[in-house]
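Protocol step 4 of 6: structure prediction from sequence.
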Amino acid sequence: MTDAAIETAELAKRYGKLTALAGLTMSIPRGDIFGFLGPNGAGKTTAVKLLLGLARPTSGDASLLGAPLRDAALHREARRRVGYLPELFRYQGWLTAREVLGVHADLIGLPRHEWDGEISRVTTVAGIAERANDRVATYSKGMQQRLGLATALLGRPELVMLDEPTSALDPVGRHDVREIIRGLKSDGYTVFLNSHLLSEVEQVCDRVAIVDKGRVLASGTFAELLAGDTVRLRLTGLDGADLSSFGTADREGDWLTIRGISAERIPDLVAELVRLGGRVHAVQPMHESLEDRFLSLLREQ
């Protein structure tokens, strides 16, 4: 294992006959906003629980901030440097935001004389400083999400893990949380963003891993994931041709889709199809989106 923020090697978790995570392998550099993207039930939350020591792996290995999962003492110390916002959380409505943060400051062992300064800092970052003395019961969902972010930032963690941080928010709330996440990168945090929302990942992340059924299907920067363009052609009179030299081919009826092809090679593709005896009725070049790539990988899986 290297000194990446997070690294996993064939990490797996099974509950009886149910496989929740099947051989997850990935590496997340420090200082990145990393998107962990997949459909519901893909194993994303299970991976988070394993990394945080909330569940034990069936097999495989992982490291968190350079501390191997198999070394309980080192991993426990590493977890002290991690801020975590779970997908489902609820704070006591009768407490003020400042009181909630005080409880968590105590839980993480923050010295009492640092509480006021640290609580002021995280409420400012999360945009709730003006309402820090209001009871949580008066907060909207967006404000409660901001409070959750503030809680995750207590103690200046090196790594912040966010599990579906915008799934229950309206468009304004999602925008506000995205702005906070971008600010975290500017302040030097490493952010692990677990989400099934492609638009969220695409707007804030430096790198992304697309996961399904507990395995990484593809990972890298967006430039790497979306390398090349896509072209759709309506084609008749030709079946079974090997077009792998042009890109990844997918045939649906009369429509042929080639992904990963450069725009300069599209005329060569058309010429090759005609040479092989096909009739090309339409050519539609387009740039592949993250959604296209995501759905394509799931279909292949």
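Step 5 (inspection) to follow. The first helix runs from residue 44 to 51.
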